[in-house]
Design goal:
Elements lengths: L34 H4 L2 E7 L9 E6 L5 E6 L3 E6 L4 E7 L6 E5 L5 E5 L7 E5 L4 E6 L6 E6 L5 E6 L3 E6 L2 E9 L4 E5 L5 E6 L4 E6 L9 E3 L5 H5 L8 E6 L5 E6 L4 E5 L5 E5 L19 E3 L5 E4 L6 E5 L19 E3 L3 E3 L8 E4 L6 E5 L2 E7 L5 H4 L1
Length: 387
């Protein structure tokens, strides 16, 4: 189906079934995250031998339980790591098709990923016996965005062929089709009731009801930042590179290739915050294109962690950030507030392009080129240790 003209209706006028509603609990770590705790994080494990020399990791993802992490790389390999033991578990090669955007299904033994060579098929792969379980054919150009539904076996894909497709692991046939324009990003809300499609060609984010994906989007939003007009004129429109709903479903994080990243209200669409203070990864491109995994929410929705061109890791305190006033009758909404990093960690020697916080524990992972780090907080010293 073709993408319709963006409707003028607001998020508040959407049908009850199309709003995110109460978020599904993400199972945050038992130890509450604070800035003081985050400042104690250090790399507990470094992996440098699981990517070919000169080749970079291009995606990282945890399974639902946080027990395993899967990477895809420019060396056309999948690498499986055990987060409990801190050890590498398995290497799976895909030299014929290449690998990108690997992520777990709801089983820790199966993944989906995009191809890089031969064709643009999405593959459903068993890690247990290294076999393909399903092929999802239909895209005619590179798949640049891929996300599993948080609640069932459906998933979304966005491609440079001007389409977004809805799939189901149980059948190779496409379940839904959106005809769009240009580079797109896709994201599910944590309840799996709503999905967002970001269109860079139009600087717009469209929200769809999963149950009515063949209907018009029920709401649209865009990044609104008057500060950009003071930097250049005409203002440069930020190129969106990643998009993630917060685990509580209230906010939408949008990563960009410009100086700032942004946090939007997931219901009203208001641009709430611009994240500044990191060194932008910009439009530096390797074989796999723009950075797409440089941002991640913590499971409690309180913090955002981001990589940086200087290799450092930055945390932004979203919970305590001053929220701009929303629009009211006869009064416009206030512009976005600027948030600077609350925590600055010494990370990698090269640009840290990928970060992901474990959904169940207090660890997070980051990469720089072919280096992967598992981060943990320092254990508090016992009184006997201080004597």
């Amino acid at each position: 189906m073709s993408t319709p003209a963006v409707p003028s209706s607001s998020r508040s006028s959407a049908t009850p079934g199309s709003t995110p509603g109460p978020a599904v609990p993400a199972g945050p770590p038992a130890v509450p995250l604070t800035c003081d705790l985050l400042r104690t994080y250090k790399p507990a494990k470094l992996f440098r031998e699981h990517a070919e020399e000169g080749k970079a990791f291009t995606s990282i993802a945890f399974d639902d339980r946080g027990d395993y992490l899967i990477t895809a790389g420019e060396d056309e390999s999948l690498q499986l790591f055990n987060c409990k033991t801190g050890k590498h578990s398995k290497t799976l090669l895909s030299k014929k098709y290449g690998v990108d955007l690997a992520q777990f299904t709801h089983k820790s033994t199966t993944v989906i990923y995009a191809s890089r060579k031969e064709d643009d098929t999405i593959r459903y792969h068993s890690l247990h016996d290294n076999k393909y379980l399903q092929y999802f054919r239909g895209h005619k150009k590179q798949v640049v965005s891929l996300e599993m539904s948080p609640v069932d076996d459906t998933f979304l894909s966005g491609s440079l062929d001007d389409t977004v497709r809805l799939w189901d692991l149980r059948t190779p046939n496409c379940q839904g089709l959106l005809n769009i324009i240009g580079h797109s990003l896709v994201a599910y809300d944590p309840n799996g009731q709503v999905f967002a499609v970001a269109l860079n060609a139009r600087n717009v984010i469209l929200l769809y009801d999963v149950k009515n994906y063949d209907k018009d989007p029920f709401h649209n939003m865009s990044i609104k930042d008057p500060l950009l007009e003071t930097i250049s004129y005409p203002p440069r429109i930020p190129f969106m590179t990643s998009m993630h709903f917060s685990p509580n479903g209230l906010l939408l994080l949008v990563g960009t290739a410009s100086r700032f990243h942004y946090v939007l209200d997931a219901f009203s669409g208001q641009t709430l915050h611009r994240l500044d203070g990191h060194k932008t990864l910009g439009t530096e491109q390797g074989a796999q294109g723009l950075s797409r995994g440089e941002l991640s929410w913590t499971p409690d929705s309180k913090y955002i962690v981001t990589g940086s061109a200087d290799g450092r890791i930055y945390y932004y305190d979203i919970l305590n950030a001053a929220r701009p006033r929303a629009a009211e009758e006869h009064r416009e909404e206030e512009p976005a507030t600027t948030i600077l990093p609350a925590v600055d960690l010494d990370g990698h020697a090269a640009p840290s392009r990928l970060v992901a916080f474990n959904p169940r524990t207090t660890m997070f992972a980051s990469t720089a080129g072919g280096e992967l780090a598992f981060w943990l907080p320092e254990k508090p010293k016992k009184e006997d240790d201080e004597d």
